[in-house]
Design goal:
Length: 862
């Protein structure tokens, strides 16, 4: 029969596989030990209870159990048992932020532990040193402990050391050693049957991949770990912190802020002071990325004070770096910021934070340049530029190449600066190729925004229209140069999509009938979040870009008499580059904010007109004078291809007098237009779809069906998502008349209402052969969310990236049934052989100024 001590040891082994089961067994052992007067077994049981609490992130109860374990052993005169309890308590004290207390407990335990147990204590002290930011000391401690465990064949503790050392290597920017240690730890834990520990290693592999810039791998590992924690009723707060870090690196700032806020709330509730300080630091970074400087400073100051109390100077340096970034973003570029940036970069380098150190040095260098201190700036930029070597994370390499460009600009080497800027863009493109999900590709532009803006400033200063056009093209809509990767073939994902459609349909019905739809709304939000997380793990489907260098000769050849107008915003000023024939000209149009104000006013007027209210066209006249008036002398009378920027994606161009009577094609970039225009015509057959609940949709489709004769028409119950997708795959033309909802918060969940629920942008990305032409006669179906770098998301953007040549859609609400006559005229022109942009222009001319016609624009080749 097993002794009570042996039963306690068995419970200890359970901690890594099932903390709840270990706790239940430890409670039984403790009760039996108390009845038997076995102090050693009772102390061991309390230690198990403490470790189980720590694994469940309940550090308050964990500390109480471990203090009792120490007291029981001390009172019974069991120094080794007391030392073991102190060793574990030292980790919990570190979790609580009492780093000095943790070190004191470890030192008190050391004289009573020998051999393997002394090595275990050495590992614990190394972990505490890591929490303090003493990375070199921690590495030495891990190495010494690992040598003992390998010699003694202690696989469990070898796995623990490798797990923690792998995290440390990731912190120090050494991805190769980190992955080696973490893979080996995962193998060992799997062989030992310790599922929770395997999940912990997956979590750490996610953290390490995130530090290395491998976003898809990071999200995959973190999702697996979080699923395990949730299924086993454990708090995922710590995993949420690492997910926040990855979301920040991916440019998903608003979501990162939400995750950080939730993590801070959970860790504060559990009184995990050390981790709470780190979570506050993440919250500060997320708030800063969202542009909320006040919240960023508040969270960073709270974190800095906590790190100071916890004697964690390396972490405190990161908190001061966040405050430095907030000051830089606020425009405080004076001598005080320069000194703080120089000191901060040095402190961060000393603490082993390579990425923040490089960024702080870049801020210092730019401050030095602004202060007229070129020598100091040169030294700082040279140091930062060393990080451009292959193998470093993409964001770090982009910053390093930016530093080299600034260095060469300062020395008057314009050609060298442009070479460095091109290298930085290539580094960003290489990173983008590792991403599958559209959302991640779009957000990747954040890493290169400052670099591209430097290039555009150079181009503006040069006065060269060609240079401005080339750099605008290098910096915008790069995500569209890659075909989107469709959602993974995952049965659980397919089930979630099906449930989402059903829940959305029920929610709409409840709202229409005046019932409380909050429960369905909450379920819809949960499903959307889960789908989004799953889709983000999608791997890229193509090895490279479909784009290429912009050649104005090819543009001229395919424009065939049309003029290209590329609109470019640089430092608050809007410029236009116009290509007419072989002539390239540059024009300064005025302040971006003044243009944006007119766009907002015009869209409001168009909305009122769609509701039947009278509204003047003076706004269209003013916007036309701002945007196209200065260009009329070079435009001639032929058609236009307009490459737009920012809010200009939502302009109803046909309302502008200069566009009246012309064909107009709207594109995110000249390269996107050229790719669409040169794509071989593909597909056959016409698909006509009428969604439910839209007066006039069925009549619109019937009328068009009569004209086409052999068209594949889907209406009523036949217009289901799967059937519509199957029909439109490989078609020459697909026309969908359905209720449309544009989701600015997440454009991938923008919808077209069909019989069994919404068709989303995610659904479109499953098409193998997209239609050559798509016509969407739904409200706002042509709207896009525009992110930094003029990266866009929405129905039209998704279809063009898939390979659809032209998309005709609306950028404003359209009255139910009001689009019918416009659509009939459009298709009559298409059937007569007109191109999409010519057909749309003819339909709009025939509409006699109907706002329903003005809301439509032609995207793509035209």
């Amino acid at each position: 029969m097993a002794t009570l001590q042996e039963l306690a040891d068995d419970a200890m082994r359970m901690v890594q596989t099932d903390p709840r089961l270990a706790r239940a067994e430890a409670l039984r052992v403790r009760a039996a030990a108390r009845r038997a007067g076995d102090a050693g077994a009772e102390s061991a049981a309390e230690r198990v209870l403490g470790l189980a609490g720590r694994e469940s992130n309940d550090v308050g109860p964990a500390a109480r159990h471990l203090r009792r374990a120490v007291a029981i052993a001390d009172e019974a005169g069991l120094p080794v048992a007391a030392a073991r309890a102190r060793m574990t308590l030292s980790l919990v004290r570190a979790d609580q932020g009492d780093i000095a207390g943790a070190m004191g407990l470890g030192e008190a335990a050391a004289p009573y532990l020998e051999g393997v147990e002394a090595a275990r204590l050495g590992h614990q002290l190394a972990l505490v040193a890591q929490r303090r930011g003493l990375f070199a000391e921690a590495l030495r401690g891990y190495g010494s402990a690992l040598a003992v465990f390998r010699r003694e064949g202690d696989l469990h503790w070898e796995a623990r050391v490798r797990n923690n050392r792998g995290v440390l290597y990731a912190y120090r920017g050494n991805p190769g050693p980190a992955e080696t240690d973490l893979r080996r730890a995962e193998e060992l834990y799997a062989a030992l049957g310790q599922d929770l520990a395997v999940a912990d290693v997956r979590w750490n592999r996610g953290f390490a991949a995130g530090r290395d810039g491998r976003v898809v791998t990071a999200l995959t590992h973190l999702a697996a770990a979080e699923d395990h924690y949730v299924k086993n009723h454990l708090s995922p707060a710590m995993i949420m912190m690492d997910r926040c870090d990855v979301l920040l690196s991916a440019g998903l700032y608003e979501e990162a802020r939400d995750v950080a806020t939730a993590a801070v709330r959970e860790l504060a509730r559990r009184r995990m002071a050390a981790d709470l300080a780190e979570a506050r630091l993440l919250l500060a970074a997320a708030a800063l990325a969202c542009g909320d400087l006040t919240a960023a400073r508040h969270a960073a100051r709270l974190a800095e004070r906590a790190f100071a109390r916890q004697v964690r100077p390396g972490w405190a340096a990161v908190a001061r770096y966040t405050l430095l970034r907030a000051d830089w973003a606020a425009g405080r570029h004076g001598p005080a910021l320069l000194r703080a940036a120089v000191d901060g970069a040095a402190a961060l380098r000393e603490a082993g934070w390579a990425g923040p150190a490089a960024d702080a040095a870049l801020i210092a260098a730019r401050s030095a340049l602004a202060a007229g201190r070129p020598d100091q700036a040169t030294a700082l930029l040279r140091h930062t530029g060393r990080a451009r070597r292959p193998g470093n994370p993409a964001a770090l390499r982009v910053s390093a190449w930016h530093a080299m460009a600034l260095l060469r600009i300062a020395s008057g080497d314009r050609r060298g600066a442009e070479a460095a800027l091109r290298a930085g863009v290539r580094a960003l493109d290489e990173h983008r190729l590792t991403l599958g999900a559209t959302e991640l590709r779009v957000r990747a532009a954040e890493h290169g925004f400052d670099l591209v803006m430097t290039a555009l400033r150079l181009a503006v200063a040069s006065g060269s229209a060609r240079s401005l056009l080339i750099w605008a093209e290098r910096g915008r809509a790069a995500a569209q140069q890659l075909r989107p990767a469709g959602p993974p073939e995952d049965p659980e994902l397919a089930a979630e999509f099906a449930e989402l459609r059903a829940v959305a349909a029920v929610r709409e019905q409840d709202l229409a009938e005046g019932r409380d739809a909050r429960r369905h709304q909450q379920r819809q939000a949960h499903l959307e979040r889960s789908i989004r997380d799953r889709v983000r793990t999608t791997r890229p489907v193509l090895p490279g870009s479909r784009g290429g260098a912009l050649r104005t000769g090819r543009l001229t050849e395919h424009l065939a008499g049309r003029s290209l107008v590329e609109l470019i915003a640089v430092d608050g000023t809007l410029y236009a580059v116009v290509l007419t024939g072989n002539r390239l000209t540059r024009h300064e149009l005025g302040p971006v904010e003044a243009v944006n104000a007119e766009i907002r006013a015009l869209r409001f007027a168009l909305h009122r007109m769609s509701l039947g209210h009278p509204a003047g066209r003076s706004g269209a006249d003013r916007l036309d004078r701002m945007l196209l008036g200065p260009l009329r002398p070079v435009l001639g009378d032929d058609g236009l291809v307009i490459a737009v920027s920012g809010r200009l994606h939502g302009v109803p161009w046909q309302m502008l007098p200069t566009c009246a009577g012309r064909t107009v094609s709207v594109v995110p970039s000249a390269l996107a237009w050229l790719r669409a225009a040169t794509a071989a015509p593909a597909g056959e057959g016409t698909v006509l779809v009428a969604g439910p609940g839209l007066p006039g949709a069925a009549d619109e489709i019937r009328t068009l069906g009569v004209r086409y004769g052999a068209a594949h028409a889907l209406a009523g119950d036949q217009a289901r998502v799967a059937d519509v997708l199957q029909a439109m795959d490989g078609s020459a033309c697909t026309h969908i008349a359905a209720h449309g909802t544009f989701r600015a918060d997440n454009p991938q969940f923008s919808t077209l209402g069909l019989a069994d629920g919404p068709l989303t942008v995610y659904d479109l990305e499953t098409l193998r052969r997209p239609p050559a032409l798509v016509v969407l006669s739904a409200c706002d179906s042509g709207l896009s969310t525009v992110h930094r770098g003029d990266e866009i998301m929405g129905f039209a953007a998704a279809l063009l990236a898939l390979g659809t040549r032209s998309v005709i859609a609306t950028v404003a609400p359209v009255r139910d049934g009001a689009a019918r006559d416009v659509m009939v005229c459009l298709h009559d022109e298409l059937r007569a052989g007109s191109s999409p942009s010519v057909a749309l222009a003819a339909a709009q001319r025939a509409s006699s100024g109907d706002p329903a016609a003005s809301a439509f624009i032609c995207h793509g080749a035209g």
